[in-house]
Write a structure and sequence with these properties.
By secondary structure, this protein is α/β, with parallel strands linked by helices. 37% of the residues lie in helices and 17% in strands. Helix 8 links the parallel strand 6 and strand 7. It starts with a strand and ends with a strand.
Length: 396
């Protein structure tokens, strides 16, 4: 799974990226600090099934703290997009192409309004962050439209003459963007477009169609960053008033999350990402204490968390509707190396027992006989739809 971080320069994307992954990236308040897309591992948080079995897990990938399992996902930090990115401005072609394989996008905006569209600091906070939402929609939708419209007249005639299945043909043209036939079919049906005469589609039809398949294939969640700033609260209320019916908007402070994770890594505090509190376990300098007090007062006490983990979890589980499945056995929960409950896999909605077998290993899928619900000790057929936090054994 690949989640892209997008937005204007200097809104805090790289800080969000580093806070989520602790990757070594440069962070600076100047436009285009990030000049090349970066990938690193972040984590979503799920309740660990170790509590069900009254045991302690030993993850091969990710980690577990207080029965909270952190499952790896891949994050991509894309350099800041500027107006005209779909025309190649600001290296827009390169950056948009980097997003082609993303399953979803996290749009990081500066909720304080102290960063304009070019990524420049504005001391009087005169920039309206609501403009950022329309900006990103336009750039990505127009990128999709450009890809489809370039050869649409010739391509649509070919579809008619050769009697090609329309949704399959369009999905193939967009396959590099992870667009499926289902996405195409849903968009055509919602817009009531003429599938018999695609050459009759107007420019407005094409733009609306491209906007919808972008919405289906690259859902966007809004991370309202820098929420600790004095001007952010009013802007957040405006964002929620105008866009809450279209988007999930989560207030966050990437700076605060990064500070807490680095303090935890240094052994100064105990902190579980996404939680509303932390515990100090070592003496702090005056500066460290002041920084933690600031985070507690201006972020955690008001919003209940820094928001960074909430954004990641909502993207994977509420937007993409993925489920977390643990492999296990009715006889034992250990793998061949003695690790207990070592793995947790993220699967798309509607995944079956057979899908899970193939996810673990190709041979398990090919030689599948049945699955077993380890919690209930019940046999399952290959078409059985799995549920979030199932523990499944595959029999071959």
């Amino acid at each position: 799974m690949l989640i892209g971080l997008v937005g204007h320069p200097s809104v805090g994307k790289s800080c969000f990226f580093k806070a989520s992954t602790l990757a070594n990236v440069e962070i600076h308040e100047r436009p285009f600090t990030t000049l090349k897309s970066s990938e690193a591992i972040g984590y979503v948080k799920v309740p660990c099934v170790e509590t069900y079995f009254n045991t302690k897990c030993d993850p091969r990938f990710g980690y577990c703290i207080n029965a909270q399992r952190f499952v790896p996902i891949t994050l991509m930090d894309v350099p800041g997009l500027v107006p005209g990115a779909h025309e190649g401005k600001g290296l827009g072609y390169e950056f948009l192409n980097d997003l082609s394989q993303a399953d979803a996008l996290i749009h990081v905006i500066d909720a304080s309004g102290t960063t304009n569209a070019q990524g420049e600091n504005i001391p009087d906070a005169s920039y309206d962050p609501c403009l950022d939402i329309a900006f990103l929609e336009y750039e990505i939708d127009t990128w999709y439209y450009t890809i489809l419209s370039n050869n649409w007249a010739r391509y649509s005639r070919k579809i008619i003459m050769e009697k090609i299945k329309l949704d399959k043909a369009i999905a193939q043209q967009f396959s590099g963007l992870k667009i499926t036939e289902e996405h195409v079919t849903r968009a055509i049906q919602k817009l009531n477009l003429n599938i018999e005469k695609p050459d009759s589609w107007t420019e407005k039809d094409l733009r609306s169609f491209c906007s919808l398949i972008r919405h289906y294939s690259k859902p966007i969640i809004i991370a309202a960053n820098k929420i600790d700033k004095p001007t952010s609260k009013k802007n957040l209320e405006k964002l929620q008033q105008l866009f809450s019916s279209q988007y999930t908007i989560i207030p966050c402070s990437a700076d605060s999350e990064l500070a807490l994770r680095e303090a935890s890594k240094a052994g100064l505090i105990t902190y579980i990402p996404g939680e509303k509190s932390f515990d100090i376990i070592k003496p702090l300098t005056e500066g460290q204490q002041q920084a933690l007090d600031y985070i507690k007062k201006n972020v955690l006490d008001i919003y209940g968390s820094t928001g960074v983990q909430d954004v990641l979890n909502d993207t994977v589980f509420k937007f993409l509707h993925y489920i977390a499945i643990f492999p296990g056995g009715t006889g034992k929960l250990e793998d061949s190396n003695g690790r207990r409950l070592p793995d947790c896999f993220l699967l798309p909605p509607g995944s079956t027992a057979l899908d899970f077998a193939y996810k673990i290993h190709q041979d398990l899928g090919k030689n599948f006989v049945r699955a077993i619900d380890v919690k209930k000790k019940l046999p399952l057929g290959r078409e059985h739809a799995l549920k979030h936090l199932d523990v499944i054994e595959i029999k071959t």
